[in-house]
Design goal:
Length: about 425
Amino acid sequence: MPAVVLIGAQWGDEGKGKITDFLAEKSQVVVRYQGGSNAGHTIVLGPEVYKLHLVPSGIFYPEKLCLIAGGVVLDPAVLLAELASLRLRGVSAANLRVSTNAHVIMPYHRLLDELEENARGAARIGTTGRGIGPAYRDKINRSGIRVQDLLEPDLLSAKLDENLAEKNALLTKIYGHDPLPAEAIRREYLEYGARLAPSVTDTALLVNERLARGERVLFEGAQGIMLDLDHGTYPFVTSSNPVAGGACTGAGVGPLCIDSVVGVLKAYTTRVGSGPFPTELAGEKGDLLRQRGGEYGTTTGRARRCGWLDAVVARYAVRISGLSHLALMKLDVLTGFGPLKICTGYRLPDGTILTEFPQSARVLSQITPVYEELAGWDEDVSGIRDFDRLPATARAYVRRVEELAGAPVTLLAVGPEREQTIARGHVFAPEPGGQ
């Protein structure tokens, strides 16, 4: 069962879209297993730049089967608009299938997301306002509406009436907002169901059948492990499980089918929104990283906070998700940056050095990063395709990341385009007789 899970090893925005696209070429199936339209993957194919939110990044290979699994919360309007945009640009997306069990983001989810975030005031989490959290909340509360319900008018009506009785009470009595109209929503979502119906299927069955046939399957995660609901910097997290284990529950496969796990991290660190960020750089250095790296959110357009690479976070990602490989992104951005730093630990006020990521939010608020300085390089690396041809200091930087994180850097990005990738080994096991 040749299956690979691809996850973000920091706070998201690491460049997973590029690596998913790169690995999709060697896969037969690509599965998006969690999150919603709060995620954004950017794919650069020659002069064309694509920004995906729900569609798996393997969609540009028409012969690959692309699945949106049951662990995803699906906004039908966003998905249909994304598919229409792809078709206008010559991408048919006929190879996409959507799980019957994926939960649906409704208008009241988006509205409550915005109202709740505004009500937090200074304690805002920094959500995207896409309705992700409220949709997952209904899922856990066993009151959610699923894709299959959009194909059953009577069932949708009953569930919608039940939900709106609660949501409209919240909107009017707590937030002073006008109630939402049931009939208009029902008509809108039945239309979505009719348009999606040809693609709706049991994706868990499909992926298990393909695995049993020995096909290569790539599980594409959204966000990053530091935003994981259970293992991230709570409460400044997402509402799902971006860790590798989320692939099993989200896609409906057993853990024994997973062969390897690839963690994607930048050669530095970024974060969008509120929450802890130990290595954040304020001032000129942070601004320079943001400018050179084009660090603006794919989904929100918000400027990303930027800082040095945090090896404590990388080591935590390796441990929490059992990373067998690392993909190190945007090495080219560090060219000409001068001496570089990597965070190797955290110093507490009493002088104690932590080398593992602390669970306590209070402790995390008190730490100071401990840095190791490495020499930089000035040579342009964007055209290099062989690791041994990189400047010696760039190779030393990559090897030090491997040592500190505890996993090999198998893929190395030296630019945004598909071919600007250095492969240092196999993520999928080589085919018999292959290289």
